[in-house]
Description:
The chain is an all-alpha fold. The protein has helices spanning about 1-10, 15-35, 40-55, 65-125, 130-140, 145-150, 155-175, 175-180.
Amino acid sequence: MDDELVSLLKQGDQRAYTEIYARYHAGIYIHIFNRLRIREDSKDLVHDLFSSLWHKREEFNLHISLKAYLYSAARYKVFDWISHREIQSKYVSSISNFMSVGECVTDHRVRERQLMELVESEIAALPPKMREIFELSRKGSFSHKEIAEKLNISEKTVKKQVNNSLKILRAKLGTTIFTAFFL
């Protein structure tokens, strides 16, 4: 009986298609739903399967029973759906991860730049001679002896100026920021 329906389906007979749908759609829906446990997606896959059957009716060659063919096609629809969901899940996870890491990195860079600007403004606010000695010591990596020779002052004065600048910066920036940048 299914062979006759398939033959009529291949000729474009809508009543044959309707009969095939009426016979098999409920069983195929249950078959798909038992694997997915999602009603709407199961309905969509059943619809896709029967829609595909109608659109490919002219090249439809059946080597097994219609029932076996439809259940096999349903199984492949489920496999495709699961595969698509896994890819979609990985993509969403990847985007989510990128967004959280990206925001973190961007936020970190913005905060770092703001802190650097704060530190630089506090260094710029030091008295000119103290700032010059401090910058040579911390940014130029000169020793106290080298700074003393360069500026023609005593090593003791250099040491005192560096210590005073550190005290001022610690007081203005707070211990945490000061420690992060100068120790």
